[in-house]
Amino acid sequence: MGIVQFKIQIDGQVELNKAFKGIIESVANYKQIFQNLVPEFHKMENSIFRNEGDVSPNKRWKDLSVNYYREKKEMFDAGIYRSMDILTATGRLRDSLTMQTNDSIINIKEDEMEIGTSVFYGIDHQKGKRRLAKRKFIFVSNGFRKAIAIIFKKEMQKKIDLQLAQDKKTWRTSI
After folding, report:
1. Disulfide engineering: 96 pairs with which of 117, 167, 170, 174, CB 3.0-4.6 Å?
2. How far apart are CA 90 and CA 93, in angstroms?
């Protein structure tokens, strides 16, 4: 019996750490699972940006300061900014996390997945640096946790079924 450790880290902090036990020896490549998680990640990020934070009211992003709101409104009215929504003045940060763009980071290996943004100011918003309020836009929502479990279970079942079918074929041919 083997154990598969499934861990999600965001900026060095563990957000999800699950161990899956079972007939895992036949599974060494998780690429398909990770590839199936990319659209789910994009959906989660879309929801986070649409709701200006998590869907629960206590985790919504802090409102814009009065001064920045006025400045942003002027830029929006002048056609310089595309949106008045929080963290979406130009849409570059949001787009890099809700679809694949030149600023998206999506690196998938057999046993590891990295997904995020290369937009340089994103980390300042995520952590709340300088004069910026902390507005976490990458975190593991409950919906994403469920999607991970469903995709993982479905893909693992496919791999186990395939392995069992191969074992059965080998057994039959070796008689």
Report:
1. 117
2. 8
CA separation for the pair 32, 156 (Å, rounded)? 10
Phi, psi of 12 (to 5 degrees): 85, -5
Alpha carbons 37 and 149: distance in angstroms, whole number: 10
| Axis crossing angle, helix 142-173 with helix 31-50, rounded to the nearest 10 | 170
All residue ranges of the chain with pLDDT < 70 are 1-10, 14-28, 55-58, 163, 167-175
At 41-60, the pLDDT tens digits run 999 999 999 999 876 656 88
Interacting residues of 168 by C-beta distance below 8 A, sequence separation 6+: none
Residue 16, both tokens: 């999800």
- β-bridge mates for residue 17, sequence order: 7
E runs forming strands in the chain: 2-10, 13-22, 104-108, 113-117
